[in-house]
Amino acid sequence: MQTEALKKVALKALDDLKGVDIAAxxxxxxxSVTDYMIVASGTSDRHVxxxxxxxxxxxxxxxxxxxxxxxxxxxxxVLVDLGDVVVHVMQPRTRxxxxxxxxxxxxxxxxxxxxxG
Length: 117
Known about the structure:
Blueprint: H1 3-16, E1 20-26, E2 36-41, H2 45-61, E3 68-70, E4 77-81, E5 85-90, H3 92-98, H4 100-104, E6 108-111
Parallel strand pairs: 2-5
Antiparallel strand pairs: 1-2, 1-6, 3-4, 4-5
């Protein structure tokens, strides 16, 4: 599956389950580890787990098996590694504390539904 298509599958899964503050960042110029980083918030540990689970399920249905999923047990921060796309789903206080957007100093590519169409 093409990277852009995989990113759209992940964004749609997050949006469908009402992920909060969904943002996708193009990090190709900053790292060789991945092409896109997606960050989203959930409203509770259950919501975070459900959002990450929805991303995993949607990607599997699209023929992409995640390379790894970390943090499912706690639900504070779940990372879904899809190779060219890495998805971080966090509770708002965790997202604010780690400030991945600022850490990577990336220019926001999309927020919310703007790129899912």
